[in-house]
Amino acid sequence: MVIDLGATAREGAVHPSGADHERPTRRPPGTWRHPLTVALDPPGTSATTSTTTGLVGLAALTSIGAGAIHAAAIGVHSEHRPAVVAFTAVAAFQLAWGVLALVRGNRLVAVLGLLIGTGALAGWALAKVSGIPFVAGLDQAEPIQTADGLAAGLALTSVLALGSALWPEHDARLRLKAPLPLMAVGVSVLTVFGMVTAGSHAHAAGDGHGSHGTVAADHHGDETGAGDHVEDASAATVPYDPTKPIDLSGVEGVTPEQQAAAENIIAVTLHGLPQWADPAHAEANGFHSIGDGFTGTEHFVNEAHMDDDVILDPDVPESLVYDTSGGGRRLVAAMYMLKRGTPLEQAPDLGGNLMQWHTHDNLCYNADGKVRGITDASGACPAGLVKPVETPMIHVWLEPHPCGPFAALEGIAGGRIPDGEEVLCDHAHGD
């Protein structure tokens, strides 16, 4: 008897034993040789019922963990909307991809996860090295902290797992096989710990972000009562940005009342001072230039406002400060002044170490109220020029300043401060 061996491969062929034999299954064209599945169970096993975790499964769990930590960090950056949007987007992508990979771990999903994980790691590295310039709140470099370090570690694990799974020469014998519940518990522990520590994340502030900074001057520090609560200098500080909520916390020696007073002065000024943005409008209402625009900063003063009893009011400011460095005049600050002749020592202590009044007793004016010189070694002005009476004044800036929102100008324009004090430079709230 002749047996056709090729008949076993055809439908209906009879095995020599006489038993029917099923037609062998064939792999559809284009099918990946080693399908990426959450588990390495036999084909057809549901991922949701799997008891072992493959590389894509590990990547999914760690991506979910990283996303959860990023979600927990959203509230810590609530004062910076761009940072909130960035954290929300990263968290959403990592969480959504992790869930998708647990349900459908194919090659396309794996490639998508690799892109998401790599992007998250690149953003994290940029934020730590130089800051992300186009995301407010993340635009200054920060040190690595526990929460973001864990999130980055989980994202890196996800990327490495996916890279291994997608490697062309990947051998099925080297695939990860670990109990799914054990892996889930391990990642969950790290995730919960990262979420808890995210609540204590100290983000960028002050000079270089993350520095808490103290004020060089101890302005009226002895006047703070022993029973007054004083701000903790170790509290995180926020750089002054007029486009964001005002927060002057974190300066040593400042009571809550002084902080509130200083913040209120800034808020009122930001709201009311822009009405004087047009120099022509200011001149039409009694202001005139003192002729110092060649320095890059020009002051307009109002003699009537300097003699009234109103202070720190943007509707009737004593002096306006314009930036002339660009060729025009851009309103950048108010220079509020007390009534002419008020001794510097009698300036009100409203903001404590946040605010420092100064006077100009070294400038000499002509009869038209223009600055035309400075005093000599004996404190006298040249013939034909006069020195104005002592008048305490303070700046309130409409834009960020390296020395904070109440910074005086530098050099001769900085004026004289109370004896025994140092020039205030509020690095904690400087830009």
Automatic annotation (TrEMBL):
Domain of life of the organism encoding this protein: Bacteria
Q: Where is the composition biased (Basic and acidic residues)?
A: 217-228
Is Plastid included in the keywords of this UniProt record? no
Give UniProt keywords alphabetically: Membrane, Transmembrane, Transmembrane helix
Q: What is the protein's given name?
A: Uncharacterized protein
Q: Answer whether the UniProt record assigns the keyword Oxidoreductase to this protein.
A: no
**TM segments?**
55-77, 83-103, 108-127, 147-168, 180-199
